[in-house]
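Hi R.,

Here's the chain you asked about this morning:
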Amino acid sequence: MEMEVNMGNVLGLVFANMHDMTLGDLTKNRTMGSVLFGGRYRLIDFPVSNMVNSGISEVGVITKSNYQSLLDHLGAAREWDLARKKGGLFILPPFGNVESTLYRGRIEALYGAMSFLKASRAKYVVLSDCDVVTNIDYKPIVQQHIDTGADITAVVHTGVYTSDEIKTSTVFNVREDKSVSSALIMPELSGTCTVSLNMFVMSMDFLLDMVNDSIARGNVSFERNILQAKCGELKIMTYEYDGYFSKLNSVGSYFKANQDLIDPENARKLFMDKRSIYTKVSDNAPVKYDLNCKVKSSLIADGCIIEGEVENSVLFRGVKVGKGAKVRNCILMQGTVVGNNAELNYLITDKNVNISENHAVSSSPNYPMYVAKGASV
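And here is the predicted structure, written out as tokens:
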């Protein structure tokens, strides 16, 4: 093994809305990065925290549209220790270049951030999307990238997948030496596959050349025009990741990923002592439990008031559950108010939803019902 990799030479890039279409109504008015998750987090917290914990001190967040809530959330980035004179956190809006338009693919997104990339002194770049919730250390991945002399290193997971999970993914065929022999994009497959987790490492020089060359040829898709088309000429290596993660590619998978965290073992794998997931701090009072309430296997964030029954649910900050109300298998985002004697089952409510008294709303585990922000039911 060569000398320890210097993570100060690495730039982090997070794509805040690469997969907005997959989460349906959840991303109608917000970018994927600002979707709420796990009681008090947003999806952007995971890649940014992973980068900071791996020793990366310069992070760019590439946005596209609907990024107001993301700006509010990230603020001056103090919570991630990225409020600094050198490096720090940069929000990169879509029109970074005079001639750049609203991007259609990852390469155009990078082209829009060209002046930022050129100004960075980093030698390597770690790219990540917001569709994988995990706690990952990028250091060994950058180290492997340098040791193998790869052009691109892709973080992958080999496992058994359903066709629904694969049809939104990039699947690699991998040789014994971990190099990629071919790439399939959104294939109709199921079974054991090596699936991309949409995290990549490359050198800054390679990245800049790739973007300039692709734009000159009118290519916009990193997956199709690079990973798939240039598989033969580039050295694309895989890094097999076997840690805990959830890949979000539908409202159903989002629901399940939240539910999985109710199991303390999963929560421990995601929220580790030494590698915290940071988020915007909001100073709420602790949860207030009424004497007659019943709460069972649920995640409940601070600021909630519980007077009824809650079971197998995730409640974000400031949720109120009225007397006699029954909340089962639900994800209630912040500010949701459940009226007295209401009954909810398999429901996702967005922020500030009002459920009237004595109402019963129920749907199925596979297709949980979604109630839009600010709605009254």
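One quick note: The first strand starts at residue 10 and ends at 15.

Cheers,
M.
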